[in-house]
Amino acid sequence: MTRPDLPPSVARDAQRLVLKVGSSLVTNEGRGIDLEAVAQWAEQIAGLHASGRQVVLVSSGAIAEGMARLGWPRRPKLMSELQAAAAVGQMGLIQAYEAAFARHGVRTAQILLTHEDLADRRRYLNARSTLNTLLALGVVPIVNENDTVVTDEIRLGDNDTLGALVTNLIEADTLVILTDQPGLYSADPRKHPDARFIHQGEAGDPALEAMAGGSGSAIGTGGMLTKVLAARRAANSGGHTIIASGREPAVLLRLASGEPIGTELRAGLPVRSARQRWLANHLRLRGRVTLDAGAVRALTQGHRSLLPIGVIAVEGDFERGDVVACVDEHGVECGRGLINYSSADTARILRQPSARIAEILGHLSDPELMHRDNMVVVRMRRDIG
Ligand SMILES: Nc1ncnc2c1ncn2[C@@H]1O[C@H](COP(=O)(O)OP(=O)(O)O)[C@@H](O)[C@H]1O
Ligand SMILES: N[C@@H](CCC(=O)OP(=O)(O)O)C(=O)O
């Protein structure tokens, strides 16, 4: 869907793009890899390369393609079967992409990531430098979640989130999410055919997030909600997001030439530092501390460190250096950061002035429970980090 009276697409000025393609597009609604679509994306990305732009491709479809290859008509429920399907399907995906890009003389690389790779600071920095090196070499990295090794509790589960994390990781200017709809509507168009098309908005706008529903197909996973939330996450590093139809001819080249296609969600939020983003992007936290109202204010308005005196409860089993959530008395997260004391020690020093830490614990690591520099404030109720 083009946007005739609108300003040029943000993709026109993007030097570094992340392109995310969904399972139903990649696998022709689960029938098997859509080689024609893959060929077109490869041709377009080669065209973007020729104009000096760098592209990372985040491709879903491993499970759907694995199911097609194994002759499974329905998505299995068992984790081990999903993982087996992903292992089979990922081979097919990578072969198809490598062959399609080779026709344009463009090299590809496979990158399979887990949440843990991005949560561990050292592995996160490694992933970042590998991706940056590949881009500098003119290679197109093809990223997917490492479905065969992740367990249910630690899966990202949807590649919209992964696309946003990769956007943050390499500080891409624009995240383009291609899907089976022309973009975001005021309600799921599968259920509400009269829904209004949203041409443009601001990433992180709760009104837009309320419009987006789950997946309407048997193949996709996150639906529109994960795409709109991905836009909020991408905006943390200043990345704009475009959600558009993968069936739109030459969609990437047209976007890059400035044609306004799909829904554009602009980054308007203050950009977070790489360290703050790394903290914010932790999807599974080791525990949480409950803050009294004064401590919540000190954190969110005063931009101060968290002291043990403002903590009224502690939950979870964590060590010094783990990422822990700070919640208010209603359990709503207001910040998160690296904690200076284990859960056992925190339980002993909560509600106490910092001057008493050494006396209670027999040692003093830091006067703060969480230092300002190691924290990120979370502002909204429905925050995704
Ligand atoms: N407000 C909305 N606007 C557009 N699509 C929506 C909306 N809410 C839910 N959807 C559903 O989201 C689906 C796209 O997400 P998904 O199935 O996960 O695709 P993909 O495999 O591309 O990630 C659409 O087919 C549509 O049914
Ligand atoms: N890693 C999974 C992708 C899951 C996913 O996010 O799918 P989709 O909602 O179609 O983007 C796979 O390759 O099957």
TrEMBL record:
EC top class named in words: transferase
Residues that bind substrate: 60, 147, 159
Subcellular location: Cytoplasm
Entry EC no(s): 2.7.2.11
Keywords in alphabetical order: Amino-acid biosynthesis, ATP-binding, Cytoplasm, Kinase, Nucleotide-binding, Proline biosynthesis, Transferase
Occurrences of domain PUA (ranges): 287-370
InterPro entries tied to this protein: AceGlu_kinase-like_sf, Asp/Glu/Uridylate_kinase, G5K_ProB, Glu/AcGlu_kinase, Glu_5kinase, Glu_5kinase/COase_Synthase, Glutamate_5-kinase_CS, PUA
Reactions that this protein is recorded to catalyse: L-glutamate + ATP = L-glutamyl 5-phosphate + ADP
UniProt cross-references to SUPFAM superfamilies, sorted A to Z: Carbamate kinase-like, PUA domain-like
Positions with a binding annotation for ATP: 20, 179-180, 221-227
Pathway given in the UniProt record: Amino-acid biosynthesis; L-proline biosynthesis; L-glutamate 5-semialdehyde from L-glutamate: step 1/2
Family assignment from sequence similarity: Belongs to the glutamate 5-kinase family.
Function in brief: Catalyzes the transfer of a phosphate group to glutamate to form L-glutamate 5-phosphate.
Entry protein name: Glutamate 5-kinase
Source species: Castellaniella denitrificans
